[in-house]
Design brief:
By secondary structure, the chain is α+β, with helices and mostly antiparallel strands. It is built from 2 helices and 20 strands. The N terminus is likely disordered.
Amino acid sequence: MSSTGFLQESSTVRIISAARIMRATIGLFILCLAVAGLSAQDSVPSATTAAKDLVYVCPMDPNMRSNTPGKCPKCGMAMVAGIPDSSEFHMHVSATPSPIKARQKERIAFEVFDPWKDLPVSNFQVIHEKLFHAFFISDDLQFFVHDHPSWDNVKNGFYYDIVFPKPGTYRVLGDFYPDGATPQLITNTLIVPGAAATAATRAKLTRDYSQKKAENLQVDFETVPPQPLAGQETQFRFHVNPGDGLERYLGVWGHLLSASDDLIDLVHQHPFIADGGPDIQFNMVFARPRTYRVWVQFQRKGIVNTAHFDIPVQPLE
């Protein structure tokens, strides 16, 4: 073979090899693009998948969750898709006329302010058929009121008329749901001046699980375990008699307020198990070893029945 022929053959081989390398490079590049495209598709969920993974939560009890919208089976509130971070709002409570006097009508004002700029709040969600739930409790635990102040658009607050039966200290609990936030349970204190207000009027409670006769039914009560312990879940089991004619009260089968004997721990609860029958169960975790009074409310044939029981709670050892 001549040197010229060898050069031509070598050139041909180099051209073929270069072409093969080019085709291999292009093929590898296309393969990489395809793999990247598949990875991108895998990392971005479809609208169907995103909707399926959406979790609806009860604003009142975040432990109640569902993959579909609807009502909370425990308290009846509308489940929402995601809950904002919890922030405590400010509640200012005042009375007119002032100073407060026992046995005369007082107008109590509830004004709510946001926790970020302390601006007045005027938009609220309905919670159990009302915009605002108010509780008033005397320091001797003999006076208990659960009612619903009215909103005043002009004064930008909730207002409620009440007569305090005697001088003393009264704890006031506001239960409300600011729009765009989480449900709030905020306490305040009102002092009615007088001789009793300066005396030691705190309640001295002992165990009382006895049957209670209310407006148009009787209430039997037991706890499980029989001796509640602080920090552990306690079941409150109520049996009402007669069991016919029971109705939902403010959207649920019952309401319960628990107060420690020093009025520091206040908890508003709704039934854990209830179906319209005579047996209703609430679940509670007591924060401290104290004696607690619990008020429970059931509605029968249009009448709200209120009964109370006293529960000594022992320390967990």
